[in-house]
Amino acid sequence: MSKPETSISLAAPDIKVPRIERKTGVPYTKIAAALLVVSALLMPVVLPWLKTPVIFAACFGIAALGVSILIRAGQVSFGHAMFACAAGYAVAFAARWWSQLDSVVLLVIGTAFGAFFGLVVGLFVVRYRAIFFGMLNLALSMVLFAVLGKFFHLTGGTDGLRLARSSFLGMQLERDDFETALLISAVVLAVTVGVLVQRYLSSVAGQALTAIKTNETRLEYVGLSTYRILLVGYVLSAALCGLSGAMFVIAQGLVTPEMGYWIRSGEFIFIAILGGIAHPVGAFLGAAIFEFVKLFAAAYLTGAWQMVLGIVLIAMVFFAPMGISGLMVRLQAKQSKGENR
């Protein structure tokens, strides 16, 4: 099927990725990543009730990192929450059919199913660009949302499915210890996927993915298949959303169709834009800000937390259009140029 030609365009956030001069300048992104890791591990020690919000923030960050991969290619998906939701249901079904499954195995199952589902959807969706790409993802996510809600006898309908607390690395843990294990796992996974995604984006495949946004035709001329390049990026982003959904469901003990609703997809995009796509740490910075602004705004501005998030996003668009990580990378680049003169 040929790619449709149209004058309509859905512009991805016009976020330029500044080049980083190596070995010079203050490594703001590394410092931010280290502060995030330390804060995520130490804050719940002082305030134990923060364990769950930190786990959820890590889940949102991993999903937003997946969405940001596609934004680098100039494509915005309004339906990527369907991969997190599908992975969540895969985890729920697996846990019900094989009750002895370990949490780590469930995470692997959720990630694998997210990648497989992404491959199936991506074979069709990556043929399209701009508004068609975004709306097709949205349409498919709403189909999944409707199906999950209608098949009550299988999916539990809008009530969803509950999960019993599974073992963790072969150990049966009480709730507090289980949350601590999940917290550490979430932080380790966040660091691991952040490093892996950074290496992928620095590779030839990652650079080619970014080039789709700037000059797709030239890539075809030099013999690179943009379809295959974008499909790899799409499957990777779906796998990350699957990992996010699996971790979220295990932590929450419940999966519902709301996980795949378009609002959740919008939250992933919000976090990706807020944190920026210049560096993987941006997704986790954006997720941390999103989760804690939502948490405290809901407590002190009941019914108006969406307004607070909207104001935060408007401020970012005006004062830091490249997102937080883009701002840090630009500052680092300026310092590097100053030192090299």
TrEMBL record:
Record field: transmembrane: 28-47, 53-71, 78-98, 104-126, 138-158, 178-197, 229-255, 307-331
MF terms (GO), sorted A to Z: branched-chain amino acid transmembrane transporter activity
Record keyword rRNA processing present: no
Domain of life: Bacteria
Lipid bilayer topology: Multi-pass membrane protein
Cellular component annotations (GO), alphabetically ordered: plasma membrane
Subcellular location: Cell membrane
Protein keywords: Cell membrane, Membrane, Transmembrane, Transmembrane helix
Principal localisation: membrane
Name of this protein: Branched-chain amino acid ABC transporter permease
